[in-house]
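Lecture 7 notes: from sequence to structure.

We start with a single chain of 290 residues. Read the sequence below before looking at the structure.
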Amino acid sequence: METCARGRPLLVLVALGIGAAMSVSAAWAASAPAGRAQAAALTGALPKSALAADDLYLSYSGTATARHSAKFLYTEHHILKFSDGRLAERVVLYSCRDGTPFARKTVSYVDPFAPDFLLEIPSTGMREGVRTVGKERSVFFRGAAKDPEKTSPLPRIRGLVADAGFDEFVRAHWQDLMSGQSQELHFLVPSRLEEFGFQVQHLRSETEGGVSAEVFRLKLAGFWGWVLPSIDVAYGAEDHTLMRYDGLSDLRDASGDNFQTQITFPSKDRAPASAASMAEARQAPLAACR
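Now the structure, written as tokens:
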């Protein structure tokens, strides 16, 4: 098994961003009317004018706690923009206990499964993501302000998934997963500037807060998938909205280790948003937690 310079196993390097980037959106492949209808269903009844609009904004929040102690770690607030019924952009603010934002992620769905994105934590100088310049796409990573940025062409491989694209991948393969067919994917790891083989499969059906849910598991493909920690995600059985995430966060503690988290996304926190609220999230000042 590969290890990083600090001796941590590869899976610890896979700051997947799945929980931090999970969408409550309609599938990318949905038609525009169907996309608007599902987006509206996620927040309850919306005015007919909102359903007819080309752009629709939604927001939701999650609270991350330590997986084994329930200790508060951070909150994350997502604002999504749908254009003509399709998920187009996302801004995520990560906040301290007192509400101070300390990190931000911006996502542009130029590709449904491998979108452009930037995750930045100014207090440490950490930056990672995928960018498109003209027809060229690249992955980049910088661990700290003192480090030079590493970059490499984005792998041109069938089944590539990056960051928030995992959520859209699950939605697009929902029926196959529910029928018991595991799905192979190549997940991008920005810190390594390369992708690794993973497998996702339906794990079980359960009830979450009185709501029927389906749980899926993501793990490394092959032998290491049996011996290394996996990541579990629970979605609503009817509307396919994210309800819970258990596993590695793409954020790290003071020692540089990825948080082991459980993140819950209460349905009561889903609500309509606006272009102004998304712009505000993009520009909000970031500061280290005290």
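The helical segments are 10-13, 18-21, 32-42, 48-52, 165-172, 174-178, 224-227, 275-283. Keep this in mind for problem set 3.
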